[in-house]
Amino acid sequence: MMRKCVEIANKTIGDGNQCFITAEIGINHNGSVKLAKRLIDMAVSAGCDAVKFQKRTIDIVYTPEELAKERQSVFGETNGDLKRGLEFGFEQYKEIDEYCKQKGIIWYASCWDEQSVDFIEQFNTPCYKIASASLTDDDLLKYVRKTGKPIFLATGMSTMEQIEHAVDVLGEDNLIIYHCTSTYPTELNEINLKVITALREKYTCPIGFSGHEKGILPTIMSAMLGANAVERHITTDRTLWGSDQAASLEMEGICRIVRDIHQIHTILGDGVKKVYDSELPIIKKLRRK
Q1: Would you call 209 helix, strand, or coil by DSSP?
Q2: CATH code of the region 6-286
Q3: Which residue of 155, 177, 178, 192 lies most exposed, with the fewest beta carbons within 10 A?
Q4: 106: CB partners within 8 A, 6+ apart
């Protein structure tokens, strides 16, 4: 099967290319641009290819009843207070856009509604992500596809039939499909990395992995199974408040993932059994016949 590649900025995603690694900042900035910049610095230092944020138009994505629910946070006493407190506006994203350009790292966002796509388009980001929660939103999928930009499609909490429909809506061109399980953190028995192999057999577009597990082993294994792109949440401190912090990686974790994944191609080799020059003195020393 001839597998397609996807170009994002100056990066090529697909077989034969280095695995594309995104550090998901999401909402782990806790409403602080200063903290967002620290997370960007982490991603740059670790050698990640991109950072990703989330963008929602609160009153469109959530019902009034959901926003009115009691929920204590530093922003107030309701769920709405929290959701609005975590959303960056134009000035904050302008600062983030300028900072990422200064640091030389790609940034993009998962937009949960059409108005958020229009908002992010102001910054001409090179790609978009469809969050798992949005996989069944055909109108949003079509709206994002109209930008003409590459799309990462997360497949958490979705059946194969739902994934097939979403891919039919989006088309396989300029698409990267992420295998994903939408629990934070994900238990080992629910990661199911073999789905990556199933997706690679079914589709010609690049296949990736968006991980929410504790630790780093499953993400590294995903690249060994052929994931062309991986994504992990990052945080400065897993004990910070916030729903995604516990499933995120601190500096050491994201550095190890980048280092180990970048070594996989070399370690796997070409599959041709050979005697290496480095083995010749050992042959002379140890073989009797």
Answers
A1: strand
A2: 3.20.20.70
A3: 192
A4: 8, 9, 11, 49, 50, 51, 100, 126, 127
Tell me the backbone φ, ψ of residue 276, rounded to 5 degrees. -85, 150
> What is the rounded distance in angstroms from the CA atom of residue 113 to the CA atom of residue 143?
9
The pTM of the full predicted model, rounded to 2 decimals, is 0.93
Residue 220, CA distances (Å) to 26, 74, 79, 213, 276 in order: 21, 36, 35, 12, 27
Which tokens is 169 given? Answer: 């809506």
**SS3 assignment, position 200:** helix
**Two tokens, residue 124:** 């001409």
Q: What is the Cα–Cα distance from 13 to 26, expressed in whole angstroms?
A: 22
Distinct helix (H) and strand (E) counts, the chain: 12, 12
Q: What is the amino acid identity at position 150?
A: P
Residue 130, strand partner residues: 153
Does pLDDT of 242 surpass 80? no
